[in-house]
Amino acid sequence: MKFNTFHLLLLLTLIMSCTSNVEDNTEEVLAFLNTNKLTITDTLSGVLVCVVKEGSIDKPKIDTTRSVTFIVQGQYLDGIIFDENSSETQTTVNMSVMLDGLRIGITKFGRGGSGTIIVPPSLGFGGNPPRGVRPDATLAFKVEVVDFQ
Question: Is 135 helix (H, G, I), strand (E, B) or coil?
């Protein structure tokens, strides 16, 4: 399902109103979507998913998938990259330790699928991020799913 601008603004307002400890960054999210020419294809528990390529019919599941191997680039909405790998350095992550927002969004991509997952602070690192990551930041993860088990 694709969202028009009105629905997107309404949705973002609702999402941001649920995160009382962070400022409303609806305009920043909209600017990121516009700059990157992304269309939201799904929203899941406050996570915005922009599927570019769906991939295989079989997709990871939160409760039964053990691990996901993927290529990922993590960035802030201002475009600054805080983490990335490449096809030569694919990352395999156990689903149980993956960021909540990334785990929720990754379920929309099959093998070979790619797109962007926008994660609010409450489902990302929140106020206690690892060293080098901004606290309470909305994060955008460009992902390409290679495999999952």
Answer: coil
